[in-house]
Design brief:
Blueprint lengths: L4 H11 L11 E13 L6 E6 L8 E4 L3 E8 L8 E4 L25 E7 L4 E7 L10 E7 L12 E10 L4 H8 L12 E4 L34 E3 L4 E8 L5 E6 L4 E6 L2 E8 L1 E4 L4 E7 L7 E9 L8 E7 L21 H9 L16 E12 L2 E6 L2 E3 L6 H6 L31 E3 L3 E3 L4 E7 L12 E5 L4 E8 L17 E2 L1 E4 L3 E8 L4 E7 L2 H5 L3 E6 L23
Parallel strand pairs: 1-4, 3-8, 9-12, 11-19, 20-25, 22-23, 24-32
Antiparallel strand pairs: 1-2, 4-6, 5-7, 7-8, 9-10, 12-17, 13-16, 13-18, 14-15, 14-17, 18-19, 20-21, 25-30, 26-29, 26-31, 27-28, 27-30, 31-32
Bound molecules: CU-O-CU linkage and copper (II) ion.
């Protein structure tokens, strides 16, 4: 028995209720095995990475204040594995962040690693592989943290639905990796399918043939693995729809026929509620929206998800909002909603800029101690196509930074830090004049408890007139998104920063040829990745590493550092 009311009463008397904050908090234990397995995510059989025979991996459900203990055993035969808990800040446990070469060594085949960390804050999160391109291989799942027992969300809902969005290729991830690292360069192309909770329907143009054959008679007939997940609701209720995107590449837009959505959460933080007809979501982001089932209950409604920001060659994903007791097999009367055209950036910007922190949320410090401007460019290194940040393309060392810094090893990565800025004469509107970049494993050392501004500066890629969207994700901290601008960030632009109610997030996008300004308080000792969440872009070097206060990091479990130069240390 846990904390019964008797115990609570007793403790209130004895300890004057000092234990109040941990009331009901508990440790939740999981034993997971990562495996390759056959699966038909989009009705075509392939191998995927799964956990305990499940794809996507099991959903973790916890309460704020709980401690999660995940014993992860690598059952792959020839490759290492790690899992990152995306959106969990890992306060005080940087070794549990699950980033290979940064926070820990990859777990070898046959070995087990114990992740133990606290989920301190409610919200919609997910987890995924963070070694090579294992996230693209299907290693992901949902992580949902409910409010602690005595707490309430600042909004009401009667039920909840969870959507984990991803994209899927028929080419194996190994082949994708080799293509990206070959001369000539071979791009992975657009995904074959979009998946909702791991299910999609390749080549089953439900949209076109929505009435004949009906949705459930498409190719997936008889194949439960790729049958769309129907969302069952009751009329006249309010549902919280949790939506997270772990796509490898695709930026998405989601629309529900005949229903508005009220956005209330972004990346685990409350936002000032606002209503939309459709919602943009980039890889690494999560949202909660409230949906009121106030439409004709004798009907069902399409949910459609389409690709944004890249010319879509991928059919949209469809599923059905099913008003019970109406039969789930009843096809909606009209065509699925059309998500906005892929290149309607004004639509995307309008959505992104309407996200503000919920009134009363903590405000950012008014000034910062340091500004780091990061120019995002596409380059070449010895003929290989790369992404670079201030002309350095990130390569990860074999010894995890966390161990190197903790033990003062200085021959395990580049000791020279990458620059805080880029050449001011660089023309962001054109391909780089000098396309040669360099590989580097240097890190940004940030003084503990300082406030840092990061300006992400987008630019032209290698091809003329191309500038892409990049969703940047920070580990270990949330940041305030202070603003977005067009063209080059220039001195004085900081006057436009929103210091009143900027949203706190862990992922923010840069639009083509634009900049995005972030501010965070570097108060969580550790070594933290900050990178584009597009899997092939990170693979091609699009990231940086922030290190702060590593001397303040507690005892790192030895198994986290059993490789490279920290391999035989007795810490
Ligand atoms: Cu979800 Cu470093 O990523
Ligand atoms: Cu990118």
């Amino acid at each position: 028995m846990g904390w019964g009311s008797m115990d609570v009463a007793l403790c209130c008397i004895i300890a004057l209720c000092l234990v109040h904050v941990s009331l009901g908090a508990k440790a939740r234990h999981f034993k997971w095995e990562v495996v390759y397995m056959y699966r038909s995510p989009d009705c075509f059989e392939h191998i995927v990475m799964g956990i305990n025979g499940q794809f996507p991996g099991p959903t973790i459900r916890a309460k704020a204040g709980d401690t999660l203990v995940i014993e992860l055993t690598n059952k792959l035969h020839t490759e290492g594995v790690v899992i990152h808990w995306h959106g969990i800040r890992q306060l005080g446990t940087p070794w549990a962040d699950g980033t290979a070469s940064i926070s820990q060594c990859a777990i070898n085949p046959g070995e087990t690693f114990r992740y133990r960390f606290k989920v301190d804050r409610p919200g919609t999160y997910f987890y995924h592989g963070h070694y090579g391109m294992q996230r693209s291989a299907g290693l992901y799942g949902s992580l949902i943290v409910d409010v602690a027992d005595a707490e309430n969300e600042p909004f009401h809902y009667d039920g909840e639905l969870n959507l984990l969005l991803s994209d899927w290729w028929h080419q194996s991830v190994h082949e994708q990796e080799v293509g990206l690292s070959s001369i000539p360069f071979r791009w992975i192309g657009e995904p074959q399918s979009l998946l909702i909770n791991g299910r999609g329907q390749y080549n089953c143009s439900m949209a076109a043939k929505f009435s004949n054959p009906p949705i459930w008679q498409c190719k997936f007939r008889g194949n439960e693995q790729c049958a769309p997940q129907i969302l069952m609701v009751k009329p006249n209720k309010t549902y919280r729809l949790r939506i997270a995107s772990t796509t490898a590449l695709a930026s998405l837009n989601l629309a529900i026929q005949g229903h508005k959505m009220v956005v209330v959460e972004a990346d685990g933080n409350h936002v000032q509620p606002f209503a939309v007809n459709d919602l943009d979501i980039y890889s690494g982001e999560s949202y909660s929206v409230l949906l009121t089932t106030d439409q004709d209950p004798s009907m069902n409604y399409w949910i459609s998800i389409g690709v944004r920001a890249r010319e879509p060659k991928t059919p949209r994903a469809l599923t059905i909002l099913n008003y019970s007791p109406t039969s789930a097999s009843r096809i909606p009367m009209s065509q699925p909603p059309v998500t906005p055209p892929w290149n309607d950036y004004n639509h995307s910007k309008a959505f992104t800029k309407s996200i503000y922190a919920l009134m009363g949320s903590p405000k950012p410090p008014e000034t910062s101690n340091r500004r780091i401007v990061l120019l995002n460019t596409q380059n070449r290194v010895n003929g290989f196509v790369k992404w670079s940040v201030n002309n350095v393309s990130l390569v990860l060392p074999s010894t995890p930074y966390l161990g190197s810094l903790k033990f003062g090893l200085n021959n395990t990565f580049d000791q020279k830090s990458p620059p805080d800025n880029y050449d001011s004469s660089y023309d962001i509107m054109k391909p780089a004049v000098n396309q040669n970049s360099t590989l580097g494993s240097g890190i940004y050392t940030i003084s503990l408890n300082t406030t840092v501004d990061v300006i992400l500066q987008n630019a032209n890629a290698l091809a003329k007139d191309v500038s892409e969207i990049h969703p940047w994700h920070l580990h270990g901290h949330d940041f305030w998104v202070l603003g977005y601008g067009e063209g080059k960030f220039k001195e004085g632009d900081e006057k436009t920063f929103n210091l009143k109610n900027p949203p706190l997030r862990n992922t923010a996008v840069i639009f083509p040829y634009g900049w995005t300004a972030l501010r965070f308080v570097a108060d969580n000792p550790g070594v933290w990745a900050f990178h584009c969440h597009i899997e092939p872009h990170l693979h091609m070097g699009m990231g940086v590493v922030f290190a702060l206060g590593v001397h303040r990091v507690g005892q790192i479990p030895r198994e986290a550092l059993a490789c490279g130069s920290t391999g035989n240390r007795q810490n």
